[in-house]
Design a protein that fits this description.
By secondary structure, this protein is α+β, with helices and mostly antiparallel strands. 40% of the residues lie in helices and 28% in strands. It has two domains: 1-42, no CATH class; 45-138, Beta Polymerase, domain 2. The strands form two sheets. It has a four-stranded mixed sheet with strand order 5-4-3-6, covered by helices on one side. A two-stranded antiparallel sheet has the order 1-2. It comes from Mongoliitalea lutea. This is ArsR family transcriptional regulator.
Amino acid sequence: MAKDFDESTNSVRVELNRLTEAGLLTAEDEGKTKVYKANQKHPFYEEISRMVSKFLGLDELLGQVVRRMGPVERAYIVGDYAMGIDSGTIELILIGKDLDLKYMDYLKNKTYEKLNRQVNVQVLDADPGNIGGILVFG
């Protein structure tokens, strides 16, 4: 993170500790590494999560995907991002038939260029039921 924000490691550590003390993050030791995650039990978690999604352009991306892919019945965000963890990969499940897969490949590349996030998309013909994701559009 220090490299990403062009800050000293001490400055980043201080801010992470402040966010942890405020209850916005949780911290766990994994060996010699401290791992920080969004605190999903915090009262403002949902609102902050929506703000971050909008900031990253994910809402716009998903809207564009749904409008241009063809007859999308439902779209789910699953995996780390659905749990509030920004691992750099956004996982989507699209439900629908005869979707424009060439356009999807184009969007995956553009998303990486614009958001610096890899997008993995799984296309299904039928809704698998409860998959533990977040329903985005339906």
